[in-house]
Structure formats: structure tokens, C-alpha cells
Write a structure and sequence with these properties.
This protein is of the alpha/beta class. The chain folds into two domains: 2-160 and 340-354, Rossmann fold (3-Layer(aba) Sandwich); 169-336, Rossmann fold (3-Layer(aba) Sandwich), CATH 3.40.50.2000. 43% of the residues lie in helices and 16% in strands. The protein is built from 15 helices and 13 strands. The chain has a seven-stranded parallel β-sheet with strand order 3-2-1-4-5-6-7, with helices on both faces. It is globular.
């Protein structure tokens, strides 16, 4: 079997959940099925960068994913897999598309122009897909509802994660000193954008014991100016650290030193930070809506994300109630162990086999 994969987003300029999915799934597929051939396809704006990137295995090669070039290799392809809910103009024998989320369609989380373009691309991908993969049951239901795709032809394949590195106590103590984080702190991981519900996180934080700090780790997104204005006017501004984008090493150290993850997002297709925090031994406070209860699997404190009172109460509980805290830590580590990229790759191969 020869599978063509749209690998463009694995080289995204701004690392995201989609980039993590693309790069890790491709690597796992190449490893578990060495007898298969994978064509890693890149759109023109990423192709030169791809040529400077090592291939994940000897069963992989690169192709330019532009319509004029597809005619030279599409007849060799058994299945084309669009990894980010869009498809190229060129047609292939069989097509699979992965949908990560539809929050752009669901809510006021982007510009009207972006919503229009996103919707057109999503509708086109759904119309031309022989099979759809989603990263959660929640997203599967959204695809069926908003795009009219048969629910029975959608396969759910959860994301995986890699184990976070461990650090010595001395290393972490030095990290905390260097970043002025020697006081206990709450962590939020994700873009500074409206969908992440950061204003309510700040409101809840302002009511908490003044010994705590709040760390926001993530680049700016839709609505960031309004959110930053609220943070700058906060009575607790001196205790709020806005880190911006953080690399994998810094993120791992934040997970290893935080007191809890606070992630009451209004809408998620999956929710990587929840699983990452659980794997690091953090108790998690997250939303009781979208994909988050599914991903948390009963191992997090769920709150109504539209209630600042509930967010505050949830944070207080995981800080003060030691029995609850230890139970969430233990259950969270067990839950996080269920998500891995090898499992995701095997389940993806099963979808391909259904189309053979």
C-alpha cells in the first residue's frame, strides 16, 4: 500500500496541536508499518523547508503537493490522507481526512473572513472524503451535524503524547529561581485567545490566596488585545506571568513545577494540555463541555467554563483538598498513559485497511 500524507502542517511556522499531530503520526506510521510506502506531500510554501528535514524512515519520500505535479504520482497512491481538514485540488483514488475541530464554525472565535474560508474548505473536504477521522467523539458529532457526513463513516482516533522529561530537584529549583516562580503557581497552557476563556481564569485567580501566581504559556491569538488589557488592569497583575510562546523544554519544566493546570476552555476538539498535565502529575481543572470531559475521562475537576465562581471553587478544591488532589494526580497519570502515538498509528492503519 502506498499512502500519500499531506505533511505540510508538520512544518508549521507556529507550532500547534495540528503540527504535533502531523509530525508524530507520520513518524509512528513509518515505524509500525515498514512494509508500507509513505509519500510525504508538502505544499509549495513548505517544500524547501521539508528538503532540509530528515525523513522519518526509509519507507518515506517527499512530493510536491501542487496540482500540476500530482499527475506524476497520484496513480501510484492507494490512499491520500489530508491531515488537517482540507484537501488539495488534485483527486486521488481513495481519500481520508482528519478533522481536529470545528470551533471556527461553532462560535465567535475568528474573523468572519476566516470563518468563511474555513467553512468552504471543511465542506469541500467532507464532500470528497471516503472516510473521516476525528480526534474525539465530540468532533465526530460536530462533523456529522455541521457538515452532514454520515456518523457511521467517521472513526475516532485520539491523539497521543510523548512522556515528558524529568529533571533533578536542583534543576527545577534553579528554573523557578531564574523565572521568579519560587511561589506556588497555577498554569494555563494555550494561546491568549477568546476561546481559551482566559479572562474568567484571571477573574477566578484574583479571588485566590495572594501567595499564588498565575502563568500563562502561549502565543497571541484571536482577541488577545482585549484579554491583555484585562490582565494589565488586574489588581493581581504583578502575580500574573505572561510567557508567550514556550518551547518544549520550558513547557516541560512548567508542568513539572506548577501546582495545577487551569484549563476551562470554551471549546476544544481534543485538549492536549489536559493530557500533558496529567502525565506530569498535575491535578487538572477543566471544562465540563466540548471534548474535555471525554479526554479527561473522569480524572479531572470539571467546571462550568462560563461560571467564574465554579472555576474559582474548582481551583480551591485541587489546592486545599489533599485527598481530592492526590486522587486526581493518580487517576490522571493512569488516564494519560492511555494516549500514545503508536496506538493512534495502529488505529489509523485500520481506517486505511477498511478502504482497501
Amino acid at each position: 500500500m502506498t499512502v500519500a500524507l499531506d505533511a505540510t502542517y508538520s512544518l508549521s511556522r507556529s507550532p500547534s496541536g495540528v503540527a504535533v499531530y502531523c509530525s508524530n503520526l507520520i513518524e509512528a506510521l513509518a515505524a509500525i508499518a515498514p512494509e508500507e510506502r509513505y509519500l510525504l506531500c508538502y505544499r509549495a510554501n513548505r517544500f524547501l523547508k521539508a528538503l532540509r528535514t530528515p525523513l522519518p524512515g526509509p519507507n518515506c519520500s517527499r512530493k510536491l503537493l501542487e496540482e500540476a505535479f500530482c499527475i506524476f504520482f497520484r496513480d501510484q497512491v492507494s490512499i491520500f490522507h489530508g491531515l488537517n481538514q482540507r484537501l488539495p485540488k488534485c483527486r486521488f483514488r481513495r481519500t481520508v481526512t482528519t478533522f481536529h475541530d470545528l470551533f471556527v464554525i461553532n462560535g465567535d472565535y475568528s474573523s468572519l473572513e476566516f470563518r468563511r474560508r474555513f467553512t468552504l474548505l471543511a465542506e469541500d473536504a467532507a464532500r470528497r472524503s471516503d472516510r473521516i477521522i476525528t480526534v474525539s467523539q465530540y468532533t465526530a458529532d460536530q462533523v456529522a451535524r455541521h457538515l452532514g457526513y454520515p456518523r457511521e463513516e467517521i472513526s475516532v482516533v485520539h491523539h497521543g503524547i510523548h512522556p515528558l522529561p524529568r529533571f533533578s530537584n536542583q534543576d527545577l529549583a534553579e528554573f523557578r529561581r531564574r523565572h521568579d516562580l519560587e511561589a506556588p503557581f497555577l498554569l494555563h497552557v494555550g494561546a491568549i485567545q477568546k476561546r481559551k476563556n482566559i479572562v474568567r481564569v484571571v477573574e477566578a485567580f484574583e479571588r485566590l490566596n495572594s501567595q499564588f501566581r498565575l502563568v500563562l504559556a502561549g502565543s497571541s491569538g484571536y482577541g488577545a488585545e482585549e484579554i491583555m488589557a484585562r490582565i494589565d488592569s488586574s489588581q493581581a497583575r504583578e502575580r500574573i506571568h505572561v510567557h508567550g510562546y514556550v518551547d518544549d523544554d520550558l513547557l516541560a519544566r512548567l508542568y513539572r513545577t506548577a501546582t495545577a493546570l487551569v484549563f476551562p476552555s470554551l471549546e476544544e476538539g481534543f485538549g492536549f494540555p489536559v493530557v500533558e498535565a496529567m502525565s506530569a502529575g498535575l491535578p487538572v481543572v477543566t471544562s465540563n463541555r466540548s471534548s474535555l470531559p471525554e479526554v479527561a475521562g473522569g480524572a479531572a475537576r470539571l467546571v462550568d467554563p462560563e461560571s467564574t465562581d465554579e472555576i474559582e471553587a474548582g481551583i480551591e478544591e485541587v489546592i486545599v483538598d489533599q485527598d481530592l488532589r492526590q486522587r486526581l494526580i493518580s487517576q490522571g497519570q493512569t488516564r494519560a498513559a492511555e494516549f500514545n502515538w503508536i496506538k493512534a498509528a495502529h488505529e489509523t492503519l485500520q481506517v486505511y485497511d477498511q478502504l482497501q
